[in-house]
Write a structure and sequence with these properties.
The protein has 356 residues and is α/β, with parallel strands linked by helices. It has 15 helices and 12 strands. Helix content is 42%, strand content 17%. The strands form 3 sheets. Strands 3-4-2-5-1-6-7-8 form an 8-stranded mixed β-sheet, sandwiched between helices. Strands 9-10 form a two-stranded antiparallel ribbon. A two-stranded antiparallel ribbon has the order 11-12.
């Protein structure tokens, strides 16, 4: 059985992708599963630091892709867990040294030897990020409960649904939300977005909630995943539970006080835009701003999709009947929860009879 490829991704930097990659990798390895964590952040590698292996790097991902080293030479076995390995990124090369063919070859090789291949993606939407997600079976979207992080994650979710190999094959890309640096008390006071706010906006399943904790910072500073450095801390326990969910277990997600605190921000007529101008807590205002903004951005992004769908539909119909291209209308109607694709094709009567 081939290994499963996980990409840990986000649109925004500094949300905890690298610490989450290390923590999830160590948690899965502690289940006696063979795990490799792969650093795709070429030029700015940090996964080796978080794993405490910075002084053991000899060869890297680019060396393997370019044929300067064998995969077995570049892999670094963790000294604490014999089933955990690291494939580091290059610190001196450019992201242009990553090639689609080379990445595919390395990922396929890793799938033969490991149960889990966890790819630490660079932030953003540039080459390294798209190649890191391309061959993923599952995506873990790491998000902080604040507006810029959620907005950027929405963009990444769109890329996962369009730019991955699974998407190109017409398959559904499995995506999960990992909410990091979360403080239930601050969310209850309205000082940060609540879990349900983020879930409603991004509309992907929740993998775990990682609380704001100094334990994560301390673990990174000593060069150990938090699931190894302080396995009984709240953050480590949250990562352990997230790893169990990745492995297919059903594990309830504790939300602290938020389960008992829910604030309705809607009126009968939908979103109340005028509340944006009233004095209110930052989180409700941020949520409404995000909903307005993302509705506009998704609608704008959809125009490219409409054009693509129209051309593909025309190509299929043209195999059977001749059409006036101006008589084919494709539109996408969006509301808060669902998008509806409408196709209006005007077929001349004589063409319809001939096709019949």
């Amino acid at each position: 059985m081939m290994g499963k490829v996980i990409v840990v991704t986000s649109g925004k930097g500094g949300v905890g992708k690298t610490t989450s990659t290390a923590a999830l990798g160590a948690a899965l390895a502690q289940r006696n599963e063979k795990v490799v964590v792969v650093d795709f952040d070429v030029g700015l590698r940090n996964l080796d630091l978080v794993m405490g292996a910075e002084r053991r790097v000899v060869y890297d991902l680019i060396n393997v892709i370019q044929g300067d080293a064998k995969l077995t030479q570049a892999l670094i076995r963790d000294k604490r867990l014999e089933t955990l390995f690291l494939l580091p990124a290059s610190q001196t090369r450019d992201k242009d040294n990553l090639t689609a063919e080379g990445v595919e070859r390395v990922i396929n090789d890793l799938k033969r030897y490991f149960d889990w291949i966890i790819c630490d993606s660079p932030a953003g939407i540039e080459r390294g990020a798209t190649l890191a997600m391309r061959h993923a079976d599952v995506a873990v979207v790491v998000t902080n409960p604040e507006v810029s992080s959620v907005r950027d994650s929405d963009r990444i979710i769109g890329l996962l649904d369009a730019k991955t190999a699974k998407a190109e094959r017409g398959e559904r890309m499995e995506k999960h939300l990992l909410l990091t640096r979360y403080d239930a008390n601050r969310a209850e006071r309205g000082d940060m977005l609540k879990v349900d706010d983020v879930l409603e906006i991004l509309s992907i399943p929740l993998l775990g909630i990682i609380p704001e904790s100094m334990d994560v910072l301390r673990a990174s500073n000593i060069g150990a995943p938090v699931t190894l450095a302080d396995s009984r801390s709240a953050a480590a326990m949250a990562y352990f539970d997230a790893a169990r969910r990745l492995a297919g277990e059903v594990v309830p997600i504790a939300r602290g006080k938020e389960e008992y605190f829910r604030q309705d921000l809607r009126t009968e007529g939908g979103m109340n835009i005028f509340r944006l101008f009233n004095k209110q807590r930052t989180a409700p205002a941020a949520r409404e701003r995000l909903q307005v903004l993302l509705a506009h951005e998704r609608s704008s992004a959809g125009s490219d999709l409409v054009t693509l769908l129209r051309e593909e539909i025309l190509a299929v119909i043209a195999k059977h009947v001749q059409l006036d291209h101006d008589k084919v209308q494709v539109t996408i109607d969006r509301n808060e929860y669902v998008s509806t694709l409408e196709i209006d094709v005007e077929i001349p009567l004589n063409a319809a009879v001939q096709a019949a």
